[in-house]
């Protein structure tokens, strides 16, 4: 008799429970990363509308595209935190959780009676991650923040756009999504620390801090020169050629980071004499003769189609890429091979495609993530499984409109 198939490996955070008080994007993306890694994430939503993004159009059969994008793998429970009984229920849940994530403005959770001091007294091992626009300190701590505001305040917006024009907001909301990067890093480090000390920790994540950190070499350039870097469009301030170049049927990206790549570009153009041309021999000289370098490359690329250029540059190992639309990018062979788009079963929409988790473990594959939950889908399950409440007790909470 053969043994039954073993249960699928849920991920490295299996057995870790997260209480998720986040909404919109910055906080939900942080909790999403924990769900992707196998944690049980219980998303607490208010009655009626739930997470505000459930109302963001466009919708399909009443379900928002926005909500679907950052809530896979989570459970949804509806609790009215405006009632003392609802707050008490949330405290009971926090006592049973390893991690709490919230992204209200500083002070809101304290006023609700769900701040770190209160909850850590009930659960000393609780790791409490507070994500906000400007963090818990500083003159802007109480100011509301939005992605474009953070991009502007951090300096990131000032270097995005075409030369000589007004800056342009980044196409993806990086100001918010940076919370989904730094939040989990801080949480996982604290989780490791707790394994040695048994104690939790309060984590203060500022989205503006995160974007400031991502300025990277742009900030260092300002330190070096004492001047503000300016928008370069798709070009690089110091590397040439680098950017988008015209083709007969569109455009193509070419990136030259080293002299070795410059040699390959010259070979692809059939112009190896440019390698020893005094104007282009070094990175600095190519930067100083930017217009001439770009003119040479543009003349070549504009005489070919994108497909022809991809073939030429691939043969010569030149860093390049066609400019794909989102639909084409999601269907390209590399994306398909990495299974970055998968189909899951949603409670009301049926079978839907979603973006898959981005971190993989070799020889230990996780099952597909569960679909983003409908509002309150797991209320009864969470109250019964986590708190051990009976069906009668849950019905009483529902009658009193504490849960939904």
UniProtKB/TrEMBL annotation:
GO terms for molecular function: CoA-transferase activity. It holds the Pfam family CoA_transf_3. Keywords: Transferase. InterPro entries: CoA-transferase_III_domain, CoA-Trfase_fam_III, CoA-Trfase_III_dom3_sf, CoA-Trfase_III_dom_1_sf. This is CoA transferase. The lineage of its organism: Bacteria, Pseudomonadati, Pseudomonadota, Alphaproteobacteria, Sphingomonadales.
């Amino acid at each position: 008799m053969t043994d039954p198939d073993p249960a699928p490996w849920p991920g490295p955070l299996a057995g870790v429970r997260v209480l998720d008080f986040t909404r919109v994007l910055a906080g939900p993306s942080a909790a999403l990363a924990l769900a992707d890694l196998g944690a049980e994430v219980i998303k607490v939503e208010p009655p009626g509308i739930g997470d505000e993004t459930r109302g963001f159009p466009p919708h399909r059969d009443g379900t928002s595209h926005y909500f679907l994008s950052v809530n896979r793998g989570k459970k949804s429970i509806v609790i009215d935190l405006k009632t003392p009984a609802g707050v008490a229920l949330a405290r009971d849940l926090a006592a049973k959780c390893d991690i709490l994530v919230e992204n209200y403005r500083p002070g809101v959770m304290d006023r609700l009676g769900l701040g770190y001091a209160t909850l850590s007294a009930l659960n000393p091992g609780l790791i409490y991650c507070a994500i906000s626009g400007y963090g818990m300190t500083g003159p802007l701590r109480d100011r509301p923040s939005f992605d474009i505001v953070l991009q502007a305040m951090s300096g990131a917006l000032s270097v995005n756009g075409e030369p000589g024009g007004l800056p342009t907001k980044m196409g993806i909301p990086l100001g918010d999504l940076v919370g989904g990067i730094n939040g989990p890093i801080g949480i996982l480090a604290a989780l490791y620390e707790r394994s040695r000390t048994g104690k939790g920790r309060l984590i203060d994540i500022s989205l503006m801090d995160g974007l400031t950190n991502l300025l990277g070499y742009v900030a260092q350039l300002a330190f070096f020169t004492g001047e503000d870097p300016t928008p370069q469009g798709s070009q690089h301030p110091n590397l040439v050629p680098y950017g988008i170049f015209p083709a007969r049927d569109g455009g193509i990206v070419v990136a030259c980071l080293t002299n070795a790549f410059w040699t390959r570009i010259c070979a692809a153009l059939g112009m190896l004499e440019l390698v020893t041309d005094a104007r282009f021999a070094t990175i600095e000289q190519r930067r100083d003769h930017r217009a001439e370098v770009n003119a040479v490359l543009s003349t070549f690329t504009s005489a070919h189609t994108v497909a022809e250029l991809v073939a030429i540059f691939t043969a010569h190992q030149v860093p390049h890429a066609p400019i794909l639309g989102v639909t084409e990018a999601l269907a390209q062979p590399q994306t398909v091979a990495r299974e970055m788009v998968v189909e899951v079963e949603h409670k009301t929409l049926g079978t839907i495609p979603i973006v898959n988790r981005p971190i993989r473990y070799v020889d230990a594959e996780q099952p597909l993530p569960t679909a983003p939950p409908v509002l309150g889908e797991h209320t009864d399950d969470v109250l019964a499984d986590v708190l051990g409440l009976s069906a009668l007790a849950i019905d009483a909470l529902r009658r009193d409109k504490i849960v939904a």
